[in-house]
Sequence to fold (395 residues):
Amino acid sequence: MAKQSIRDVDVRSKRILVRVDFNVPLDKATGEVADDTRIRAVLPTIRLLQEQSARIVLCSHLGRPDGRVVEALRLAPVARRLAALLGAAVVTADDCVGGDAEAAAAALPSGGVLLLENLRFHPEEERNDTAFARQLARLGDIFVNDAFGTAHRAHASTSGVAAFLPAVAGLLLEKELAFIGGALDRPQRPFVAVLGGAKVSDKIRVVENLLAKVDTLVIGGGMANAFLVAQGRDVGGSRVDSGDPGHARRALDRAKELDVRVLLPVDAVVAARFERDAECAIVPVDKVPVGWAILDIGPQSQTMYGAAVRAAKLVIWNGPMGVFEWPAFAAGTRSLAEAMGATSATTIVGGGETTQAVEEMGVADRISYVSTGGGATLEFLEGRVLPGVAALMDG
Ligand code: AMP
Fold:
């Protein structure tokens, strides 16, 4: 369902409470921000608010302090990096609610930015406590959610607070909804989904939801093993999900009913052991040597998968084609990334590992949209309603 965004409401000169996802990795030695991708992702929203002379109160979680104050998880390093990126001062508060936070928010000048302390220092945040949500709401006139990465959680700062303030999406969240939501609701065709990664049980709901929408489903990575087994093949010593063995069989039956083409690997890179430098070979999928494991799709499968991507008007990809962290088993993921980068179709990449893969392989800037959410992206692809989105005002 369409949701209102920051562009649909009058934010001029107002105090705007913005939930952001500044859950960034910190350098172990220096304590400084090691990767500022998530901070940069929110800059367009902050800049738009500054242009409207709004006063900006940012809140985020960082790590898992489990409801206690953990010194190493304070947001000070994030504030420093944000100030450097904005080229402007960022005020900080010692807490995310209470008198000091309220005073700091009240004292903000037009265009000023305040970053509150880690939300998860309070156990009430993850409990979605109503009194805590009300305290947060005192810090703004309007609530903006721009934290897609936590939109699948019903927490005080993502869901509860929206009961007390007009609530709209920030530009980043709006873009996620437009690309992924748009792809699922009104796909250009042919629509191809490529799924990979370790286990079918993690993604079976994604498979089920996408089967009802796509023209072709391409499966690689460890999760393909369960489908090969379901087709009666012997995958040797490959990792096969210990979850419900019927998942893959039922998905294949459903695909047939819905007339969805399912592509599975026809050849594979197999290894004598599950190790980085293990002896390896390329074999057809029905010739996996006893005790050897499939660690990547083979060259014929790469060609087939590349052709499916080229024939599509819309491609969504989640999950690597092999154990891409090890160079000997990265070719399948690289070839898919290159096919995604080369097509003129709309291409969407989601999930932490896949995002890492397209970045490492240098094609991220040729993908139409790289989703910023991990778990949130998967739940979105499963067709679930994300609480952080549901809480926003309808468009
Ligand atoms: P996921 O988080 O489910 O997308 O899984 C990503 C992980 O799947 C990566 O760390 C890969 O190393 C792993 N993976 C991909 N292909 C295989 C495979 N054939 N066997 C075992 N693990 C795999």
Residues 197-199, 202, 221-222, 239, 294-295, 319-320, 322-323, 325, 351, 353 surround adenosine monophosphate (CB under 6 Å).
